[in-house]
Amino acid sequence: MTTNETLKTIYQRRAVRKYKDQPVDRSLIEQIIDAGRMAPSAMNRQLWKFYVLTDKKQISELSPTIVKVANKVLSWAHGIDSSKTTDIIFHNAPVVIFITAPKKNDWASLDIGMCSQNMMLAARSLGLDTCPIGFAKLLQKTDKISILGMSSSEEIKLAIIVGYGDEDPPVHERKKDNLKYL
């Protein structure tokens, strides 16, 4: 392991799906979003928008709504039994950050990927844990989408849950046979 702080943060970051019942200070959330804003974007357009949800009741109401849309995919892709888990979408995290971009933008997914990685690494460096939630985009197919107050010209690309982790997931083995020097 290196002593370089950036590399150390990269190697320590994990997708955490169990959180302590502890709020996250707004100043930390803003630091995390500011780190996302520092990501490169196509033609430096910075088209992302952030919608931050910290109300536990609202977060808990969104999960079952998304599960209804995603239930077949969830059980097929992950073997998850939604009837045995209280919050399989947002994992009882105290913060959900929805990241949106304009519809039909060819570069938005790449931009959001870089932005969200900055955010997750910033959170880790601040002592917080995160998990990217792709299924959060299914909120757009529910009647609860109005909670975000987003424009009809944008779409959810990803959500990131943030909080103080209550688990220490293992490091998964990384493929090493995918490199070729030319």
Question: Your description of this structure?
Answer:
The chain is an alpha+beta fold and 182 residues long. It has four helices and four strands. Strands 1-2-4-3 form a four-stranded antiparallel β-sheet. Helix 2 packs across helix 4. It is globular. The model has no long low-confidence stretch (mean pLDDT 91).
At a glance:
This protein is an alpha+beta fold. It contains four helices and four strands, in the order ααβαβαββ.
Give the overall shape: globular
- Class computed from helices, strands and strand pairing: alpha+beta
Detail the poorly predicted runs. Answer: none
Strand order of the largest sheet: 1-2-4-3
What integer value in Å does the Rg equal?
17 Å
Q: In whole angstroms, how far apart are the ends?
A: 27 Å
Report the order of strands and helices. Answer: HHEHEHEE
Using DSSP, what is the number of strands?
4
The main β sheet shows up as: 4 strands, antiparallel
Mean pLDDT: 91
Strand content: 15-25%
Number of helices: 4
How is the quaternary structure best described? Answer: single chain
Please give the share of residues in helix.
Answer: 25-40%
Quickly list its features.
182 residues; alpha+beta
Give the secondary structure arrangement, pairings included:
Elements: H1 5-12, H2 26-37, E1 49-53, H3 56-78, E2 95-102, H4 108-125, E3 129-133, E4 154-163
Antiparallel strand pairs: 1-2, 2-4, 3-4
